[in-house]
Each structure stands twice: as C-alpha cells, then as structure tokens.
Design goal:
Chain lengths: 212, 168
C-alpha cells in the first residue's frame, strides 16, 4: 500500500512538474497550488528560514495526504491508521526538531525550550516539569491524533457497512446513506489531518529554530 | 485491535521508512525542482511585466506632462498673438480715426477759406457795382459838371464808407 502511495504521489508531481509551462495546465496548477499551500504553511509558522525544510515537509504532507485519501478507497488499506506508522513519523519529526535545535543553538537550546521567556525565578521548579511534559506530549499527541482520526473514521464506516449488510434492504438503506455522508466527511478529515500534522511539524521545527 | 499488534511493528517501520525515503528522494530530486522553477519563472515574469507596465505608465505620464506643458505654451503664445493683434488693430483704428479727423479738419478749414474768399470776392463785386451805381446816381444829380478824376475820387470815398459800414 505504501508503494501505491509513493507511486501515485510521485507520478502526480512528476507529471505536474514536467509541464513547466508558464500558463499552467490543470494538473500543473493543482500541484502549484499544493506547493504554494505548503510554502504558505512554512512561511506562517517557521518564517523565511524554514524554506530550507520545504522538501521534507512537503513530502511528509503528501505522503500522509495520499495515505489518508487512498485509504478511503474501499478495499485498500489506510497506512496512517497504524499507530506505529504515525508514531514513527511523529517521533522522527520531533527528533529532527530536537536535533535542529541543538545544532542551531547548542547548549542554549534546552533552557530555551524549557523556560518560557519572562518566567520569574521562583516559578522555575514548577515551569520546567510542565514544559518537559508538554514537550513529551508533542510527539505522542501528534501520533495519536492522526492515528485516532483515521482509525475512528474507518471503524465508523465499517460499523455502518456492517449494519447495512445485516439490516438488509428493509432498513439497510439508512446506515448506507450515513456512510455516504460520512465518506464526504472522511475526505475532509483526510485533508485536515494531513494539514494539521504538517502545521504542527512546522510549529515544532519553528520552535527549534526560533526557541520560544 | 490489529493496530496494537506488535508483531507487525518492525516490518511496518521498515517499509514506512523505506517508502517515505523513496518518496522524499523522488520528490526532492525530480518533482520539486521543475515545479519550483516554474513558479519562480512565473513570479519573475509577472514582476517583470508589472515593472514594465509601471515603466510604461511613468513614460506615458511624462509624455502627457510634456504635452500639457507644450499645450500651455502654445495657448500662451496664441494669447500673446491675439493680444498683439488686438493692440495692432486698436492702433490702426486710432491712426485711422486720427487721420480722418485731421482730414475732416483740413477739409473744413479749406471750405472755410473758400467760403471766406468767395465772400470777399462777392463783397468786392458788390463794392464795384455800388461805385458804378453811385456814379450813375451822382451823374444824374450833378450832371456833367464833374471830371472823370472827380468821379473817381468821390466813388472811392463812398466805397470806403460803404466798406466801413459793411464791416460793422
């Protein structure tokens, strides 16, 4: 399934990139819209210096987006509904932000993220544990959010389809119509979750670049 | 739930990392450069076009200003010409008037002189006729007792008297 994602995503962007015309075709303008969308996210959260990480962040966004979207096709599998997959991404991203922070700021990085600016001295024993917890919560929430959203959507769809099958023609149309509505919702969620994951990635990396 | 079944974890991690790396590599190497380049080219082109448009606008504005100044100068010139022409016309008119007045004055003067001359002549005529008449009358009264010289002397005296009367 991941290969399919890789294939579809690369095909789409390679085709879009091959056009290279000044007046874009449909697929080209779609890809350019996507690029500008991701660039906008990076610009808003990390500033101009974040553009260096554009390839990584855009790949992440596309990978998650295509995983989510292709997983909605009946009979396929949603990779992002695996906690381990989202977890690897989340830990990877968070770890990268830590590495970046240490590389950019050296020893000043740890106090930089653990102590919010303007904290009075007597609050430090309280603030530092809170900040440590919030830092640890970042990758966990990142992983669980995506995984839970994807899983929940599929579970609900599965339950409704099960109801349709067991309900038969007489009552089965009701849950079936729900699945149609939910499907639209799921497509939206697929986009939104990919977007949220990307934005949070940018925010964490931006924190690593600019500290607090 | 299969999601928490740890027996697939290692293979999932492996495939995930591998496929993501491949996607990243493909995009980084082949997909992003042309797209970003196209975007940049378009941006540059748009900026250039805008710059050019701005430049053209500035040029047009300058030309417009130039024309306006020229127009103003021309208008001023026309005004000056008009004023000059008016002045000239006025001058001509004045001259004409003056000349006409002078002419009329002169004609009047001449006429007056003519009249005066004619009057003089008429008076002289009348004087002559009056002398003849006086002589005729005197001859009737005195007969042939007086010589021609006496006649003339009397006539002249009478004439002087008449002239003194007519002047009064």
């Amino acid at each position: 399934m991941m290969w399919v994602v890789v294939g579809v995503a690369s095909l789409f962007l390679l085709k879009a990139g091959a056009a290279k015309s000044l007046v874009p075709s449909k697929i080209q303008s779609m890809a350019e819209l996507l690029v500008e969308f991701i660039q906008g996210i990076i610009q808003d959260t990390m500033g101009p210096s974040g553009m260096r990480y554009f390839p990584l962040i855009s790949s992440l966004f596309l990978f998650i987006l295509f995983c989510n979207l292709l997983g909605l096709i009946p009979g396929t599998y949603t990779v992002t509904s695996q906690i381990i997959v989202t977890g690897v991404f989340a830990i990877g991203v968070y770890g990268l932000s830590l590495v970046m922070g240490f590389k950019l700021h050296g020893a000043k990085f740890l106090p930089g993220i653990l102590i919010p600016p303007g904290t009075p001295g007597w609050l430090l024993p309280l603030m530092i544990p809170i900040e440590i917890i919030s830092q640890i919560a970042r990758p966990i929430s990142l992983a669980v959010r995506l995984f839970a959203n994807m899983t929940a959507g599929h579970v609900i769809l599965g339950v409704l389809v099960g109801l349709t099958i067991t309900g038969g023609l007489l009552i089965g149309w009701l849950p079936f119509s729900f699945t149609i509505v939910l499907y639209g919702l799921e497509v939206g969620i697929a986009f939104i979750q990919a977007y949220i994951f990307t934005v949070l990635t940018c925010v964490y990396m931006g924190d690593a670049i600019h500290l607090h | 739930m299969p999601q928490f079944d740890s027996q697939f974890f290692s293979s999932l991690i492996f495939w995930e990392v591998l496929s993501f790396s491949i996607l990243f590599w493909i995009l980084y190497k082949y997909a992003w450069p042309p797209i970003l380049e196209t975007l940049e080219t378009r941006e540059r082109k748009i900026r250039e076009s805008l710059d050019q448009a701005e430049q053209s606008r500035a040029t047009a504005e300058q030309k417009l200003k130039e024309y306006e100044t020229k127009l103003q100068v021309a208008a001023k010139e026309a005004e000056n010409l008009m004023a000059e022409a008016k002045q000239k016309a006025q001058q001509l008119l004045d001259e004409n008037q003056q000349r006409l007045r002078a002419d009329s004055e002169r004609i009047k003067e001449e006429a007056t002189q003519d009249i005066e001359r004619e009057r003089r002549k008429a008076i002289d005529d009348i004087k002559g006729q009056a002398a003849d008449l006086a002589i005729l009358v005197a001859e009737k009264v005195i007969g042939r007792s007086l010589s021609d010289d006496d006649h003339r002397r009397f006539a002249k005296e009478a004439l002087a008297e008449v002239a003194a009367h007519s002047k009064n």
